[in-house]
Amino acid sequence: MSESLANRRARRRIAILLARVGVSLAVSVGVAIRSSAQTSPPRDLTQFTLEDLMNVQVISVSKKEQKLAKTGAAIFVITQEDIRRSGATNIPDLLRMVPGVDVARVDHSTWAVSIRGFNDIYANKVLVLIDGRSVYHPVFSGVIWYAQEMPLENIERIEVIRGPGGTVWGANAMNGVINIITKSAKDTPGGLIVAGGGSDSQAEGLVQYGGKIGQTGDYRVYGRYANLGKSDPATFAPPADSKRTQEGGFRSDWNLTPRDLLTVQGEVRLVDGGETTTGVIFQVPPITATFGQPLGDDDGNLLARWTHRYLNGSDISLQAYYDQSHVFANGAHNWATIGNIDFQHHLRIASRNDVVWGLSYRAGANRFSGNSLVTLHPLERTDSLYGAFVQDEISLAQTLSLTLGSKFEHNDYTGFEIEPSAQLVWEPNARHTLWASAAKAIRQPSNIDSGLQTISAVQPLGQGLYGLVTVSGNPNTKVEQLRDYETGYRAQISRRLSLDVTGFLSFYKNLQTTEPQAPFFNPAGGYLVIPLVFDNKAHAVSYGAEAFANWNVTDRWKIGPGLSMLNMSVTRDATSQDSTIEQTPGRAPRRSYQVRSFINLGRNFEWDQTLGYTGPLATGNVPGYVRLDTRFGWRWGESCDFSVTGQNLLAPRHAEFPDIHFVDHMQDQRSVFGKITWRF
Amino acid sequence: MARMLSLFLLLGAALQLSAQAPAFDEYQVKAAFLYNFAKFVQWPPGTFASPTDPIGICIVGQNPFGSSLENMVQGKMVGDRTFVVRRFPDTQQASQCQILFIGASEWKRTRALLDAVKTPGVLTVGESDDFTDQGGIISFRLDGPRVRIKVDLQTAEHAKLRISSKLLSLAEIAKRQP
Description:
The complex is a heterodimer of chains A (680) and B (178).
Chain A: H1 2-39, H2 50-55, E1 58-59, H3 63-69, E2 74-78, H4 80-86, H5 91-95, E3 101-105, E4 111-115, E5 126-130, E6 133-134, E7 136-137, E8 142-143, E9 155-162, E10 176-182, E11 190-198, E12 202-213, E13 217-228, E14 243-257, E15 260-283, E16 286-309, E17 315-329, E18 332-349, E19 353-369, E20 374-376, E21 380-397, E22 400-411, E23 415-429, E24 432-443, H6 447-451, E25 452-462, E26 465-472, E27 480-492, E28 497-516, E29 520-522, E30 527-554, E31 557-572, E32 591-602, E33 605-614, E34 625-636, E35 640-647, E36 653-655, E37 667-669, E38 671-679
Parallel strand pairs in A: 5-10, 26-30
Antiparallel strand pairs in A: 2-9, 3-4, 5-6, 7-8, 9-10, 11-12, 11-38, 12-13, 13-14, 14-15, 15-16, 16-17, 17-18, 18-19, 19-21, 20-25, 21-22, 22-23, 23-24, 24-27, 25-26, 27-28, 28-30, 29-30, 30-31, 31-32, 32-33, 33-34, 34-35, 35-38, 36-37
Chain B: H1 2-17, E1 24-25, H2 26-40, E2 41-42, E3 55-60, H3 68-73, E4 83-88, E5 99-102, H4 110-115, E6 123-126, E7 138-143, E8 146-151, H5 153-158, E9 162-163, H6 165-170, E10 172-173
Parallel strand pairs in B: 3-4, 3-5, 5-6, 6-7, 8-10
Antiparallel strand pairs in B: 2-9, 7-8
């Protein structure tokens, strides 16, 4: 009796809920129909006076989107509005919105970021550039994300290209390129003060000023402080992953003549933090323990770029930068000095060929000082990388263009490497673009690949005997290779809706494996050494798709859905004995979905959300998670902005990545952050 | 979950109701400007063979207007002249054009296109940031949601075009460096 009553009640509740949803839907649709009826046909613009025309508000596809529509590669641009309204306080969080990019927070200071799989805190298949300066660390072959701090307010845009992305980019653009471009000094005049604070001891302060230099120059100077406390002790013990950043920098842009542009920029940064690590602390007998360790980075760089435009429309650019960094983690230190010079020439040949070619040279000097767990052979090393590229965009017809190009590189490990690529772009009309590409790309070997020496684990073997697992680099390391085939479709479906879809098929060869060698007994220590050596004995096939859309639902509400799908299988070669390489696909989710919503609530209020699902990671049994971030923004007067952002609101905490490379993962927590921005 | 969904939908409805006056398509507004330029620009004598020859508006390269430009000027007259809209792949036949529009999609070859305009009396209009630096006369710019125009007086003079002060008073004047 009571059962059917409960059932009836439940059914009634569901019916009421459905009715509510139905009514809202009907009202929405009804209003949408009515207001669209109101907007067409438009009033006759020819009746407008010039003054009227100057006051009309337009909806437009940005010019940058028009330029990008012609690109024969999978590209996503993170705009200033995307940055501001995401509520993100660091670059990896910003990258979450890009389909195809895997972002996992390992702890408060460490991130694993990659494109189309192979995720790792030293993910080595993605090139990251800041204003043309590579931040891919040549020693660790990866990006040290805790060192990449900068005022997000100064970012003009971030271009993310998934896939080898064409020939123009530098070394190691294998699975993609993340190109962070800062604003010209001309675009940041006046004073800017930002102050923010939030849960987990988050604090941020930025003071910046920009002005003119003489008649033709502009500059800006800034100082920034940011702090983030440790993870919640309830999530792991003992958390040590706090992080403190102090940095300062400048940028200056000069129009030396109407045809010459010179940019000089530089910055200095100190990052102090920590991480929880599990490693071997004694060698006789070897035991494993978990403890907090400091990590940090001091770095500085200076960059100059000169662009000259000729009367005939061609242009050249010359860029040089100097980068010095000191990175330390768990008692190991690395000092790196890099000097890089790049030259590029862009010209038209005949009426159908748009050619870009260039030369580059990089010199790196490196010094490493290890701890009891890791060392590098040799401890000091200098490397040179020579590069050249050429690319020709050929207009086959008014609507069809073929781009052929190749990169040529010479490195100190494997010598000469060639990376050709081709792209075909068809634009049947201004609203649709269809493209296809094929490319070969390689990953330049690094100091780690050839000279690493580390103790990775302790295995008790019974009867008081221990096995110490060591990993060593291979001086005969080969380059990892990729052959990549992609196709995509971009459409401006209506004034309010645009769509971008990409599909890819990638074949990897010579992927790095760790091969067991014959174990031997170390009588001095009383343990068995189980050596593993790097080799390149695996291959992989990966295929998938990414799609995103921009929909201006109303004049005040914009939504941006996106999805990525990745299917990867890694197979070891016949001669390989690596028992874990085939689990590599488990380090990235197979499916991710996201929807972003920007709402202008009128009277200077903004309400923005991001709702996303990231699939599970098979490696490390990290379950999939749903994440909701929301932000309220309020502009007060002409110069003051307030915002409050809540992140990860749906669950108190969740894990995003397993333990890796001695770093114990923390769980990402629900958090809140408030920010005041004042421009004067 | 359903409650959140219905909340979103209600919000969507509320936003529609409170939406501001309808905005226009960017290219409809630019087309209206092109039509207006004909009213505020004087072409040099000899441009037209007869007093009733139509004013030629030419679009070079990709056409971002769709049909809105033709629809807008159909049946309209400035003085005794009607309009005719032409499309060309390049500027070889610029002599047939009184107003010549080069869209942003042609950014890679804009300079080459402008250099190939040899005859005077052609009002070149474009959209790229440096259109006037590259030799164009009027360029469109978006300032937030509004369309703005920039005029290069020296190039206009060189092309023997007289631009009414009414139009100039609403435009930004390009500064030319020697």
